[in-house]
Design a protein that fits this description.
Length: 243
């Protein structure tokens, strides 16, 4: 009886994590050939399938099948089947649920498998932005920009010279982290080294990251991005491809 109750509890957790979720994971995530501790994670099986075609998870509508005959013909295999729609799983179905979910570790930047019992709601630090040491007018400007971006997230964001830049130690990373906390959005952090060295690697990595951030409505922070904003020179043509 105790085992059944644990399986039902685990099944309910699995059911509650269907679709897209931004969560905290307190445990060790497992990936192909590696493992790692995770903190903030994205649970998204549909996007998992998009980027892991060789390890695809079969997703289809849940049906409640009651065939009119014990052994229906092959061409009549769907006889008596109806989609359950938004109904909750029954106890028999909960017993069969997986104990793991697929998702993305924002810390490790890897697609991993997570145990459902270790998935938690995020405890947001809503006072992080208030504790940020910046002039009040700059903080008000940042908040206004955030509200504008949220209200017009489906429109094109024009390029403004100098936007989002600043010297080292200026507080860009901490500001991005604080903003992500107050709007409860994922923060995807990466360095210039994560993008690669060749122009093709950078283009491919940026394309992937931008697609993920768009799907998850995440904030993208590229640390040390000023290396791509430097002026071109006639001495290094390969470098010119990156800037």
């Amino acid at each position: 009886m105790e085992v059944t109750e644990k399986l039902i509890k685990s099944g309910k957790l699995f059911e509650s994590l269907s679709g897209y979720h931004y969560k905290h994971f307190k445990g060790i995530g497992v990936a192909r050939g590696m493992w790692g501790k995770s903190n903030r994670i994205i649970i998204d099986t549909y996007t998992w399938n998009r980027f892991n075609p060789n390890n695809n998870v079969d997703l289809h509508a849940l049906t409640d099948c009651r065939p009119s005959r014990p052994w229906p013909d092959n061409d009549d295999s769907e006889d008596g089947c109806e989609e359950q729609g938004d109904n909750f799983l029954n106890e028999d179905q909960l017993l069969l649920c997986s104990t793991t979910v697929r998702g993305y570790s924002l810390k490790n930047k890897k697609w991993m498998t997570f145990d459902v019992d270790s998935v938690r709601d995020i405890e947001w630090s809503d006072t992080a932005f208030e504790r940020l040491v910046l002039p009040r007018d700059q903080k008000e400007l940042i908040l206004t920009l955030i509200e504008s971006q949220i209200a017009n997230k489906d429109t094109f964001d024009d390029v403004i010279q100098g936007k989002g830049g600043g010297p080292p130690g200026f507080g860009k990373t901490l500001t991005a982290e604080s903003v992500a906390e107050i709007i409860h959005a994922p923060l995807y952090m990466m360095s210039a080294g994560d993008l690669g060295l060749s122009s093709s690697d950078v283009e491919s990595a940026l394309s992937t990251v931008m697609e993920l951030c768009t799907k998850w409505n995440a904030i993208l922070l590229i640390d040390e991005a000023d290396v791509f904003l430097e002026q071109r020179s006639s001495q290094d043509l390969e470098r010119n491809k990156l800037v």
